[in-house]
Amino acid sequence: MYEKEKSLLMAHGCAAATNGLAVQRSADGPTWVAWPHGNQVCLLRLDGDRAETRTVAGRSSDGAHSVMQVRWCELRGTTYLVVAASNGVDFYDEHGASLLFSFPFSQEGGGGSFTRGIATFLGKACVGTSDGSLLVFQRDAAAGAPHLAQRARLHASAICALAGDECHLVSSDQSGNIVQWAGKAGELTKVRQIDHYGSACTGLTLTAQYVVAVYGSGHLRLFSRQTGQVRAEVTAHARWITGLDVALESGLLLTVAEDASVKVWKVSEDGKPLTHKFTEHEQDARLMGGGFLRPDGASFGLAAYDQKQLICYAM
Amino acid sequence: MSLKAMPLLFLNMGGEMIYILDQRLRAQEIHQAKAEKVLDDILGLMCTSRFIEELFRPQSIYSAQSLRTIFYRLAHSSIMRLNKQSMDKLYDLMAMVFKYQVEQCSHPRQLLMVTLNHLDSMARFATAPRVSKQVQTAYDLAVQCYGNLPEGEMQDIRYDILNFFLDYRVKVSIFLKEKRQNPSGTFVIDVTGPLPEGVSMPGEIRYFDERGEITSTCRYPCKELPGEPARSGSLAQNGDRGTTLGTNIYSSQGSEPVSAGPTGSGAGDEPPTTTSPSPSPASPVCGSGPTAERAAQALELLAQLIGQGGQQKCEIRLNLPGPGAAAAAAAAASGAAADGSNQPVQGTRGRSDHLQKVMEDMTIGEPPASGGQQDLLNMMDALSE
Question: Residue B107: exposed, middle, or buried by beta-carbon count in 10 A (0-12, 13-18, 19+)?
Fold first, then answer.
């Protein structure tokens, strides 16, 4: 289904971070890829055959802080590069040239302090934290800077992943619980909780009918968005799943894990919810993220811990 | 970032240090009583209750530079001395072997098993009853702190440690020989072992209806070989951990030298990198901030503890050879110093003024003229300025 292509070289190796790879894709413009490296963000701009790299220095030069995750979020027509770091959330312009807004975060207690999980929902950027909160950032006017609008606290353990579309936001935590949210009068309100299965829920995404979740136990599960009921359960990987992405145009789903394998699945909105399409093993690559490089899922990239190569596959 | 990673980083790297020193002491045929004293002195200091308590306080990981300085001091706290190159190689070996172990963990909880394997071995190396007791205390504290930690939190700790070692890539001869490391420096990933607890064999899809009843199952093609379920690692001393990660990889080496560093040209997509001379951009050296203060406090405490025993006279010169080192090892065993250098070990790269002054004040090889205690007091004064 997919053939391996020439790998692309980023400026630095990918950090150990679940869902480490971020992709900003468009049907006809350049594709941007990003991953964390220490307290920096490595960027790659892919335009046809041309690839150029860039590094965004973190806000803090203190080596004690690091970037956990990056994502692109659009707030009121402006796209930001949102960086979830161990000391707070930073908003850069779309391609990381300048830091526009920072929200420091620290948590008391011995567990550790960080922000992780980024998603766009109803024109707002939502970021998870180590104390189980969701920070909701918005812009009030076209010319305004982002600011914190709401802090929703429902999870009892650290947030692992967030995903959002026009109807729902979903959040998952280290205990494996998932919360489905709706937006009412501009605020997040809980719709339901999907209980855990004994393992951290490390990745989330949404299709038209399903909440798609992946776990540290290597399982992939599809839950009905209407009822929260599990509709499909897959023993997908032999190790901790570290990446999940969906290409909505084609219904293709991508999972990567620490077992050095990448798998592609097809989600159907009628008939069998999920079928397996493709598996490949990446030799000696401790995969930390994966993402489709095109909206139709015809190509994808993989990130591996401590390796500079963006591993590419295409149909 | 996790505030619980520091004890695991220190105890595991310390355990590797003991393995390597033991191997070199045997290779150089050092008298058994002296070898035991060296290991007891270092273990005793590593596991001193005050130091262990400081270690287990919630804190960020120290900078690479601070950690290197702590191990340099530990290695020189007894009657043994190493020259600068050997000290660098020792640290590189400790770091790369532990990095390998952390990366290979099939499940976050296995990181605790690796630590307990190290602590089991440290207990076996301890000779004096006082030291055995100290190692036992460290063991109990590790079980208490990490035994019931949720897997997600343990994974955060594991990733913090992996990120501490990000960009750190040194070729280790024993790993290259055993095909655990590629010529490019990347580690070989082996996923053929037992499945971790809670993980099912890949290959099955189950479908459910709206009431949650299974309607059908099917299999999909899977390249994974069937693996037996993992044995749940035991927390008991010398228990079955379910993994050999953390056990002594040098115990079958005998007197064969182990080495770290470039071993000749290697095929690979990228040139091998040795990053020991300078920290990676991901962890820039910082002379200020709460983490650096904590590291300085730990160093100060270590200086106090070393000072309490009095600076010991050098009786053993240990060397860690590079490639083709059999001749060097033989020369060392015959009593000749591996090199006649009395160069002090530079534990820093000059980026932290405080730590630099501390290391310059340390006399390596020659007993200080004014007595160990006074020099260490001066050191502590310098740190507290």
Answer: buried
